[in-house]
Amino acid sequence: MLVNVQEPDFEPAGLDPKIDDFRRKKTNEIFDDLERYLSEPKLEVERVILDGEPAQMISELAFARKVDLVVTGRRGLGRVARAWLGSVSGRLVNICQRPVVIVP
Predict the structure, then answer these.
(1) What is the CATH number of the domain that holds 68?
(2) Containing structural domain, residue 31
(3) pLDDT tens, position by position, for the chain (104 residues)?
(4) Are residues 44 and 57 located together in one domain of the fold?
(5) Degrees, nearest 5: CA angle 10-15-17
(6) Is residue 90 within 8 Å of 82, Cβ to Cβ?
(7) Half-sphere exposure of 40 (CA within 13 A, CB side)
(8) pLDDT in tens, 19-43
(9) CA distances for 95 relative to 81, 91, 98, angstroms
(10) Which residues contact 95 (CB under 8 A, 6 or more apart)?
(11) Whether residues 68 and 43 fall in one domain
(12) Is-contact 43 73, C-beta < 8 A?
């Protein structure tokens, strides 16, 4: 399962539909590339695009689908940026009720 969670933008007038369409288009392009890569070992792939807080949404989805393992990447933020912005992968490890592996 390929999952992308897009945090809502908080703009005074709300999210411009063109921006949302652009983000979803780019996400699907990335998913296309990943599916081509994963088709070699003939893996079945499901696409899931969600809106919300990423760690929370991934954790809830993993629990609901009873996944065996959550594999996530990290952006490689430095200590100061990670402390200021937080880390989705770090939060996911702390709240997810399924095993999580972080790939650098």
Answers:
(1) 3.40.50.620
(2) 1-52
(3) 888 888 876 555 556 677 778 888 999 999 999 888 887 777 788 899 998 899 999 999 999 999 999 999 876 666 665 555 458 888 999 999 999 998 87
(4) no
(5) 170
(6) yes
(7) 4
(8) 778 888 999 999 999 888 887 777 7
(9) 21, 6, 9
(10) 55, 56, 59
(11) no
(12) no
27 neighbors 63 (Cβ within 8 angstroms)? no
Tokens read off for 34: 């990943």
Query: What does the DSSP 8-state code read for residue 41?
Result: T
Residue type, position 6, single letter: Q
Q: Verify that 48 and 58 share a domain, yes or no.
A: no
- Indicate if 38 and 67 belong to the same structural domain: no
Kindly give the interhelix angle for 54-64 and 88-95, rounded to the nearest 10 degrees.
40
In the chain, the amino acid numbered 64 is A
The residue count of the chain comes to: 104
